[in-house]
Predict the structure.
Amino acid sequence: MDIIEENDSPEKVDNLLAAADELPHGASKIALCEEAVRVADSLNDIRLAYDARQDLVEAAVFGGRSDVMLVAFTWCVAQFDRDPEAFDSYQLLWRFKWVASTLTRFPQIDRPTIENLLLDMERRYRAAGATMQPVWLKRRGAYLDMGDLEAAAEAHQHYMKAQRGDFSDCHACEVDSLVDYYFQLGKNAIGLKKANEIFQGSLACGEVPHRTHAEVLMPLLKAADAASAMHHHRVGYPMIKDNSEFGRSQAIHMAFLALTGNDARALRLLEKHIGPSFDGGDPQREFHFLRFSMLALEAIAERKKKAKLRLPALSPALEGEKEFVLVDLATEFRRLALEHAGRYDERNDNDYHTRLVEETSTWKKYATPMSFTKVGGGDPTGK
């Protein structure tokens, strides 16, 4: 039973949500929305609780807490299905896209559950008369996350043929998703050209080009264009430095700094971002942070034997502030990354994530000294 506190009221819910709306995405915004949900639940006001959870879902998505989002969204779906006329179907269908992008991040969620969610999304979109373009987009992303590149390619073909509609992502997000698709397939030249459409065309939203600047860093190093990559680091990192939702992007920037010889900066980013990235809200973010940390430390260990760092207790070997032998620290990050990879590979019935860890280490061969103060051109094609 929810306990009603003395000042709990519908007005308090409204005030909490209004205050949350004024905050940037992050822990404080999520906390205010969670309190609004608690108050609404204590009042036994289903409609108010539904609306509060809709705000919580959005705050959790863009604040990097996928776990919180899933719980709140599941509650909303159950309430909607009990009384569809009482709630806004558009909001629910829009948020289905966020959930479809999230399930694969949790290795404990099996593939049949993921497939069933995608089928449920398709059923609901068809019932609403919506285009299937967003459905195919989320299918492609889910299959990429699970390392099923053949299924991703099939979904991609359907996606490219489908028409945009009311539930389609913004143009910036759609182009950014193509950047990610081509990079994951190893088609870096095409991925860089699509990224250039974002940078040169001024496509933007709440997440793009924030994450795009990070995604081009390694392909540009591989293309021997460290100067342009440094430009994207200097422009892109300030966009994402204070939001743990971008933990993967933060880790890529950290690894890039290590590969360009900016060791002290790389280690500062490791200390700054490792804690927020391991808040328990997104195992996939943890996996990527581990493998890029491994890469950064392996690169720095070739030039520096030890470093004093403050790290959270991810394992007994990491806890506390002390001087670490960097090669040993890199080995520990590799071990943790492979542990995460094993859980994903077991769920996906392949070795995709394990191979991803091993491939990450090979990127050291593209290391290129580049001063942080040297700004290159803005053309990610390297031309």
In short: DSSP finds 18 helices and two strands in the chain.
